[in-house]
Design a protein that fits this description.
The chain has about 130 residues and is mainly β. The protein has a single domain, classed as Beta Barrel (Lipocalin), CATH 2.40.128. Helices cover about 10% and strands about 55% of the residues.
């Protein structure tokens, strides 16, 4: 009985110190996203290294090994969203894709996560701000 209590107490202390858990940052203007980002995007063939440059108006260009994507971030009812369209490869044009985006901060890093509304669509991405 005493051992169970000690283990339970240890588990509570271990879980209560959630140091390093990313804190979501509320975006009030897409200008906050302006700059260069780098990270990973999920594609049909697997995860690919990607870079993304975001302008002050929320428009962006993202490039990975197999594709280039043009898009725009916008706020809808206070939520950060995006729409995008793949521009390469030319043989595989894409319809416009809509999704949600979120920004979090953890250990001095700013992380931008993109999640397509369509769960079966590749394109989930996670970027870290570099400038």
């Amino acid at each position: 009985m005493r051992m169970r209590r000690a283990l339970l107490l240890a588990a509570v202390f271990a879980l209560s110190t959630l140091d390093g858990v990313a804190e979501e940052k509320q975006i009030v203007d897409v200008k906050e996203l302006a700059g260069s980002w780098r990270g990973w995007v999920t594609e049909v063939a697997g995860d690919e290294w990607a870079t993304m440059n975001v302008s002050a108006d929320g428009s962006y260009k993202a490039s990975a090994i197999s594709t280039t994507t043009l898009g725009k971030f916008y706020l809808e009812a206070g939520k950060l969203r995006y729409r995008s369209r793949r521009t390469t490869p030319a043989a595989m044009p894409s319809a416009e894709v809509f999704g949600t985006a979120s920004v979090s901060e953890d250990n001095g890093k700013t992380i931008l996560t993109l999640m397509p509304d369509e769960p079966n669509y590749p394109g989930r991405a996670e970027y870290e701000k570099v400038k």
